[in-house]
């Protein structure tokens, strides 16, 4: 191709490239925001947008400090020798802003500590002002612990389920009481029922058996549908096609009631069986379509060689259907890993990842550093599965309508 | 459905292979469906007829009292209206976006990468996607900077921050955008496979005859892939009827964003009867798609 032609080609395709790239950026930005935020220092997350993560950092808390403290303590904090704010030992007495607030609410020499301007009456609003001031003072007194721009501490918070305003590891290092009351600051915290670490284990315990069980049962049934002749075969299979789209809302309550009467509520077996029942119609449908698409001659020749159905099933059908089984396994696994409703209803005492994330949501939106870390922890496995087995994933989707 | 004639088995052998699956489905799908149907005519606790919750002097549908709730209660009407809005806007929006991606990506060398980016949201949970978008739509109501992407952009261009999720003027649309973001990849993948199966000779012939690209698309490609578009659309209709997680995480169904499945979830514990009536309603709404799917299956089998 001549250089001019090539240029012309690129120019002709320019709108296509622009539109596509623009759409891809729009698609990736929301996830990127979550990803970047999960690694940012929690104070930065609260005060600045994630897109400024690499921009020059403004000193957090400086304007608030200037408003409330600088008139008496001076811009450098050294104006009052009796209360030298640049002294790290003084600042370390106030690891958190609520202690600072308690101190500031006390009178000094019979006068309110802060008069011009006074702190907001509402404790939450006051803490909102004090938290950046504290960070600022920790910064210039040199007592601040973790001021690096990027950190893994949010992930530690998410794993153990720590909802403090500071990071779990920071509070553990400083011996903050609220951290010590519910947490041991040892590896045992990883199994805290409110943390994502425990939820991760629960998710695995739910997803693996709930993937294997329906595939095994479906393989037998699919073989019968594909290579055996029996009365009502078409009719039964059409029923399965219909069952695929039944909303799971239709079966939740009776099964939950059944489990209560059997004393099985909140058990893992209960949720495995639910997912098996619900996953079977699609699994049978997909496997049967694959098996019946295999050449008839292959089966005829093994039957002629004297093989019975049992041998043909294990030694011919299963090995040949491996690609379909792989697609199905990936689909079923991701479906269960990402499920929220079923786990919320059947396993609320053993929350899986999705349920645990919703437990961590702060309605006021103050804990993005934990929430973003928690969400990304739940994405790890799907991402690996997706990028590792994309081919099977797409094939599974093309093989049939998608259940839900 | 032809089977090899050589291997004859006794009549009960197929049922041995089918039994485990059929048994599990009977106990965990068919029986509960039937039971849900029965419970939808019972009261709060599922012990006596729904008629007992009728109040003298007020409208009452007797045993169908829960259905009166499902079809006339203001919150349910809002949910039905919202689901209809989702069907009307979000389903076509997703299918068209997916088709656009499929067509565009087909023409570039980085097709695989572009497709992976669009498809990625399908791999993660709806709850996770909900968190991602909560953050995008976040509004800082205090004095601080806007840390949510959308409001930061608005403020940067001199606008006022908007409460995307609690303002009834656009929160439903904000939720639908999340839906499009999630499902466009699904539509794209299926439609892309259909586009690639359009015979190249037909397209070439049209181009040689002087058809413009737009004409080639609308007059040749689109009619050929129409059956696939129909399949994708029906799947999306089902997905939208059952839409739950996104709404639960982003708004909890508040501020005028209620949907059928969320209403059903909220009532599960407090009023089983009503909750089950809503579930039955949900199934009734899926029946047209069910019939479509079964018919399509029978056609496929006939042409095998």
Any overview of this molecule?
The complex is a heterodimer of chains A (404) and B (304). With 404 residues, chain A is an all-alpha fold. Chain A has helices at 3-12, 14-38, 42-47, 62-68, 70-73, 88-91, 97-105, 123-141, 153-160, 168-174, 177-182, 196-227, 233-243, 252-262, 268-292, 296-304, 309-320, 322-338, 341-346, 353-360, 368-388, 390-399, and strands at 107-108, 111-112. Chain A has three domains: 3-52; 65-146; 196-399, MetI-like (MetI-like fold, Orthogonal Bundle). In chain A, a hairpin with a 2-residue loop joins strand 1 and strand 2. In chain A, helix 2 (14-38) packs across helix 21 (368-388) and helix 15 (268-292) packs antiparallel against helix 18 (322-338). With 304 residues, chain B is mainly α. Chain B has a single domain (62-302), classed as MetI-like fold (Orthogonal Bundle). Chain B contains twelve helices and no strands. In chain B, helix 2 packs across helix 12 and helix 11 (260-270) packs across helix 12 (272-302). The longest helix of chain B has 32 residues, at 74-105. Chain B is flat, with a radius of gyration of 25 Å. The relative contact order of chain B is 0.13. Classes of the chains: A mainly alpha (404), B mainly alpha (304). Chains A and B meet through helix 2, helix 3, helix 12, helix 13 and helix 14 of A and helix 1, helix 3, helix 4, helix 5 and helix 7 of B.
Features:
heterodimer; A: 404 residues; mainly alpha; MetI-like fold; 3 domains; two-stranded antiparallel ribbon; 22 helices; B: 304 residues; 12 helices; transport (chain A); transmembrane helix (chain A)
* CATH-defined topology of chain B: MetI-like fold
Number of domains of chain A: 3
Shape annotation of chain A? elongated
Q: Which strand order spans the largest sheet of chain A, edge to edge or round the barrel?
A: 1-2
């Amino acid at each position: 191709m001549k250089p001019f032609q090539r240029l012309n080609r690129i120019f002709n395709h320019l709108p296509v490239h622009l539109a596509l790239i623009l759409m891809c950026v729009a698609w990736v930005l929301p996830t990127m925001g979550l990803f970047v935020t999960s690694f940012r220092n929690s104070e930065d997350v609260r005060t600045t947008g994630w897109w400024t993560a690499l921009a020059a950092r403004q000193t957090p808390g400086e304007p608030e400090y200037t408003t409330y403290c600088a008139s008496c303590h001076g811009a450098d904090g050294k104006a009052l020798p009796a209360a030298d704010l640049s002294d790290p030992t003084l600042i370390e007495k106030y690891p958190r802003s609520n202690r600072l607030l308690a101190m500031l609410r006390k009178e000094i020499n019979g006068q309110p500590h802060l008069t011009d301007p006074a702190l907001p009456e509402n404790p939450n609003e006051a803490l909102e002002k004090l938290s950046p001031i504290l960070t600022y003072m920790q910064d210039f007194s040199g007592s601040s612990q973790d001021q690096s721009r990027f950190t893994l501490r949010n992930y530690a918070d998410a794993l153990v389920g720590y909802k403090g305003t500071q990071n779990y590891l920071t509070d553990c290092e400083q011996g903050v009481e609220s951290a010590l009351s519910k947490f041991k600051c040892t590896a045992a915290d990883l199994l805290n029922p409110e943390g994502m670490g425990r939820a991760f284990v629960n998710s695995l315990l739910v997803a693996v058996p709930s993937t294997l069980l329906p595939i095994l049962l479906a393989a037998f049934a699919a073989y019968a549908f594909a290579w055996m002749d029996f009365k009502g075969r078409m009719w039964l299979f059409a029923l399965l096609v219909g069952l695929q789209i039944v909303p799971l809302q239709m079966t939740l309550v009776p099964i939950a009631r059944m489990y209560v009467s059997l004393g099985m509520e909140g058990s893992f077996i209960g949720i495995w069986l639910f997912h098996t029942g619900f996953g079977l119609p699609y699994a049978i449908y997909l496997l049967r379509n694959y098996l019946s698409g295999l050449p008839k001659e292959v089966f005829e020749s093994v039957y002629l060689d004297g093989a019975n159905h049992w041998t043909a099933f294990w030694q011919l059908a299963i090995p040949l259907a491996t690609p379909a089984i792989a697609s199905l396994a990936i689909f079923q696994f991701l479906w269960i890993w990402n499920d929220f409703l079923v786990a919320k209803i059947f396993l609320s005492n053993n929350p899986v990842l999705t349920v645990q994330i919703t437990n961590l949501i702060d309605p006021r939106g103050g804990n993005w550093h934990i929430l973003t870390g928690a969400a990304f922890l739940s994405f790890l496995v799907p991402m690996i599965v997706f990028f590792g087995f994309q081919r099977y994933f797409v094939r599974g989707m093309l093989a049939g309508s998608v259940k839900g | 459905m032809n089977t090899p004639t050589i291997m004859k088995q006794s009549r009960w052998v197929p049922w041995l292979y089918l039994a485990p699956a059929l048994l599990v489905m009977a106990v965990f799908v068919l029986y509960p469906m039937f039971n849900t149907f029965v419970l939808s005519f019972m009261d709060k606790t599922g012990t006596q007829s729904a008629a007992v919750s009728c109040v003298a002097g007020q409208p009452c549908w007797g045993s169908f009292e829960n259905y009166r709730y499902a079809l006339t209660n203001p919150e349910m009407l809002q949910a039905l209206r919202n689901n209809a809005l989702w069907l009307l806007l979000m389903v076509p929006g997703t299918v068209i976006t997916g088709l656009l991606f499929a067509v565009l990506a087909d023409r570039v060398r980085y097709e695989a990468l572009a497709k992976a980016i669009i498809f990625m949201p399908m791999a993660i949970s709806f709850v996770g996607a909900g968190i991602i978008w909560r953050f995008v739509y976040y509004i800082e109501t205090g004095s601080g900077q806007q840390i949510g992407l959308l409001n930061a952009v608005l403020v940067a261009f001199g606008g006022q921050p908007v409460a995307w999720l609690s303002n009834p003027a656009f929160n439903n649309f904000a939720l639908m955008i999340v839906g499009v973001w999630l499902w466009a990849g699904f539509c794209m993948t299926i439609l892309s496979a259909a586009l690639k199966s359009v015979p190249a000779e037909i397209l070439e012939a049209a181009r040689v005859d002087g058809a413009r690209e737009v004409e080639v698309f609308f007059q040749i490609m689109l009619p050929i892939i129409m059956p696939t578009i129909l399949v994708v659309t029906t799947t999306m209709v089902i997905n939208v009827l059952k839409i739950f997680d996104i709404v639960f995480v982003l708004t909890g169904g508040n501020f005028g964003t209620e949907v059928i499945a969320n209403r059903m979830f909220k009532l599960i514990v407090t009023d089983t009867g009503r909750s089950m009536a809503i579930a039955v309603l949900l199934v009734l709404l899926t029946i047209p798609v069910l019939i479509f799917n079964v018919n399509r299956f029978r056609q496929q089998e006939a042409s095998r």
